[in-house]
Design brief:
By secondary structure, the chain is of the alpha/beta class. It contains seven helices and ten strands. The structure holds the ligand O=C(O)c1ccccc1N[C@@H]1O[C@H](COP(=O)(O)O)[C@@H](O)[C@H]1O. It comes from Qipengyuania algicida.
Length: 211
């Protein structure tokens, strides 16, 4: 696996999953959040999951789900990673890890340096921190970038990822400026909300791997 990790998020067809895998994505993201144009039902997600080969990790993105629906989603979809993209607490993620033993990521809308103080409380609990633009119409998946300069004062103490408005045209600069070990893109790879472009997926992965 190349050093640069890439997550292509919000996929909903076998064709786009295959394209992302072929282009070098290390992670595929499914959204299970009804307000999102990328929402997948449990049945659709379980069906699509079969198109992800071993060696490529499936990340299930959820937003502040209650315990029982979350458990149902995990049992149906069998993700490799859970991405918590709402106001989930460190205590809650610790409990999920203890009960299920699954890799957990916590996202943060990066507003200012105080976000790093909050992120520190997830040290030793989450497996990766994901910095995104602050919530807008949706908690994530808004296609908005944040000021990458904010990461100048970030001293990584655990694995992390960069998200928010990444696309084929800006991902190389984003990696060069921030040193992000994992880049994550969703709406910047679409022709309309929820519809991914194979050409954009390929161009994104190519640019990220060459950065
Ligand atoms: O993509 C969504 O619809 C979504 C909905 C709710 C929470 C998170 C969501 N997506 C995540 O948001 C970031 C950034 O996405 P974008 O590239 O700016 O569109 C990414 O981690 C997605 O997984």
């Amino acid at each position: 696996m190349p050093d640069q990790l890439i997550k292509i998020c919000g996929l909903s067809t076998p064709e786009t999953i295959n394209a992302a895998v072929e282009a070098g994505a290390s992670h595929i993201g499914f959204i299970h959040f009804e307000k999102s144009p990328r929402h997948l039902s449990l049945d659709d997600a379980a069906r699509l999951r079969r198109h992800i080969p071993s060696g490529v990790k499936l990340v299930l993105v959820t937003v502040a789900m209650q315990p029982e629906p979350l458990e149902r989603a995990i049992n149906a979809i069998k993700p490799d990673v859970l991405q918590f993209h709402g106001g989930e607490t460190a205590q809650w993620i610790k409990l999920v890890k203890q009960m299920i033993g699954i890799e957990c990521w916590k996202s943060f809308g990066l507003r200012d340096k105080d976000t790093f103080v909050e992120a520190k409380t997830f040290d030793g609990i989450a497996d990766r921190l994901l910095f995104d633009a602050p919530a807008h119409e949706l908690p994530g998946g808004n296609g908005l970038a944040f000021q990458w300069d904010l990461l100048d004062s970030w001293e990584p103490f655990m694995p992390w990822a960069l998200a928010g408005g990444l696309n084929p045209d800006n991902v190389a600069e984003a990696i060069q400026r921030t040193g992000a070990p994992l880049v994550d893109a969703s709406s910047g790879l679409e022709t309309e909300p929820g519809v991914k472009s194979i050409e954009k997926i390929e161009a994104f992965c190519k640019a990220a791997l060459a950065a």
